[in-house]
Each structure stands twice: as structure tokens, then as C-alpha cells.
Amino acid sequence: MESFSRYGITLLRLRREDNEILRSWRNNPYNAMQMREQAGRKIGQEEQKAWFERIKNSKNAFYFIAHYKNKPIGCLSIKDIDWDELCGDPGSVFDPDFADENPIIKFCCEFASHDFYFEELKLDFTHTFVKSSNKQAIRYNKFIGYEHLEKFDENGFSYFKLSSNKYFETRNAALLTFRKVYDDTLGL
């Protein structure tokens, strides 16, 4: 699937020409410190290109650039998909210039991507690791229904899991509230 749209967000499959914008988001100092594999280090152009070549045709990973009002605002992904267990590891990184704008838009991005994971890919659950110092991400993950399953590991990351049933229950309640508050001005 090359695109998926929900809640005013369009997810477009990552393309080679998106590499530099994604690399700039990943190299933002705050973003780089939150990413498990990156651990704060800068990603070079050649490393980004090699990474893209490895993932571009993967059947076990999907990467999307999220667009809001035709502007790229972040990358949402699911990787390490286990088709036997019907699970995968989602992730997101947002344009730091967009990060302080309406936080509901970030939720809409996450809702759109999780709808794709659970409806289109038919996954039963997602699981992810969140850095202990990233309090915002921990609150966010709990808000959309993730359960904290393990204490923080030696690298400062904790394990969270979300079932499709819990996700839809939480998402539906959140969207109802968002629609009341924003009077559907966001296109929810």
C-alpha cells in the first residue's frame, strides 16, 4: 500500500527522495536521544541511503511520511513484523519545527498509523520500547492504550504493549472527545 488517509492525515510510503528530510528529523538532538538504535549519534548521508536500501522492499516493515495539509510533518513506521504472531514494533519521529504545534495532530498521525497496522495489516498487537526520560512519550503511549509490561532495562528503555481491542476502545473514546472540543475543525 502506497498511501493511507485518516483524520486529516495522509501517510505516504517512504520514498528515496524523503531520505534527507527524514535524516534531518532523526538528527535533531532531542529526537536522536530518544531513538533506541541511534542513541544520540548523528546519521550520515551514506548511512541513511544504505538504511533506505535495506528497508525499501521489506515485507516486515512499513515506513510512511505523514502529511498534514500537504506538509510533511513526521515519519511513522512499523518494523520487525512477526507474521506468525501478528505483531510489530511501531515508531515515530516528528519534524521538530512542527512538534510544538497542535498536539492533537500528532495523535491523529498515531491514530492513522495504528489504524493501518490493525485494520490493513491485521496485526493483533504492537509492542515498543520507550526511553525512561521521555516522559511525554510514556504519557502518550499510555493515553492511547499501551500497557507498561516491564521495568526499565539497563539502557533506560521500558517495554510497552498494545492490543488491537484496547487500541480501538481507547481511540474511539479519544476521537469522541477531540470532536467535541475541536468541533470537527480538524477534519476528524
From TrEMBL:
Give the highest taxon in the source lineage.
Answer: Bacteria
Q: Name one GO molecular function term.
A: acyltransferase activity, transferring groups other than amino-acyl groups
Q: One Pfam family, short name please?
A: Acetyltransf_3
UniProt-listed InterPro entries: Acyl_CoA_acyltransferase (IPR016181), GNAT_dom (IPR000182)
Domain N-acetyltransferase span(s) in chain numbering: 10-140
Q: What is this protein called?
A: N-acetyltransferase domain-containing protein
